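Exercise: predict the structure of this protein bound to 4'-deoxy-4'-aminopyridoxal-5'-phosphate.
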Amino acid sequence: MKSKLPNVGTTIFSVMSSLAAEHNAYNLSQGFPNFPIDERLLNIFKEQASLNVHQYAPMAGLPKLRQEISLKVKEHYSVEVHESDVLITAGATQAIFATIQALVHPGEEVIILDPSYDCYESPVILSNAKAVRIPLTEDFLPDWERIRSSVNKNTRLIITNNPHNPSGRIWTMDDFRELQALLNDFPNLYVLSDEVYEFITFEKKHISAHQIEGLKDRTIIVSSFGKTFHITGWKIGYLVAPPVLMKEIQKVHQFLVFCVNSHAQATLAAYLPEKNLEELGPFYQEKRDFFQSLLRKSRFQLLPSEGSYFQVASFDQISNESDVDFAIKMTKEIGVASIPLSVFNADGTDRKLIRFCFAKDNETLRKAAERLCSI
Ligand code: PMP
Ligand code: GLN
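Solution:
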């Protein structure tokens, strides 16, 4: 069988999570919380189960949930988003897939900034378009000179990810000014802004594409309830897009899933207005600080983590193995699983960096850190 995606294998997240399970290792690889969800959310979920929520939801999502999302956007970013500009999706992954399939034509180009999350490139290839993978700077911030020199009139989309997975870096206002200038120069260019960690930032506040003048009409903003409410397995998220783009994205969405899990939608529509999302940053900041303090005695060097629930560490002073070999060996022999960063780079660049997920209960973090300090 001729493959449409010949270079795609099983994702590193599945590989490392299975390896962790096989070797009974602490799993700080795949990004998901291991602590219970909010009891209130669980109670609403149970209550909703006994109501009439079990048939197809409207194609674009429950009106109440779309409305609550537009209210949250207004509350956090002081911008008006009409509920018809909101589409409920089966996680950010489906939002990204539907967007790329809907907007990118054969032969067009899409800019992806490396190290990049793994679900961006395949939908570009499936659109018979070209993924142009451009490295971020050493500090994991956009290299605007390089980006600018790679954009041409055939470039349809630039995919941005802020706060950034895997590095945990966040964009500054200067980055947005550069992006604005690029859009001014290239009228056919659109932005797919992956903001799934929008509520997980620490010392600095997240700047959303929602807030930037001139970006709103040219941007599809993607978020995920998986990250915000510790429910990655529910696979529910949303995108916000201007009407002309939304019309095309919905054409794909309706044949990809038609609509998203109705029980999850009804639960979140009731829960969202109750929840203060400002609590999420400090909650994860405490975990980051705890994890960092535990690792201070180790030989790992910790890079800045400004947002997301990831901590990147250099093992340069511990081993000169490849990052993949090192991560596998550490899972098997030390009993702590992580993600090697080279797999997020098109050219496999290996800077001896691994990513730990600190969305774990303190006991797990403590025990994993004890082992990490032993090498
Ligand atoms: N984008 C980024 C940057 C992510 O880290 C993830 C998942 N962890 C996703 C998209 C996909 O989110 P979802 O699970 O809601 O599909
Ligand atoms: N986004 C999660 C991470 O970065 C993984 C999600 C997945 O397994 N597909 O670890």
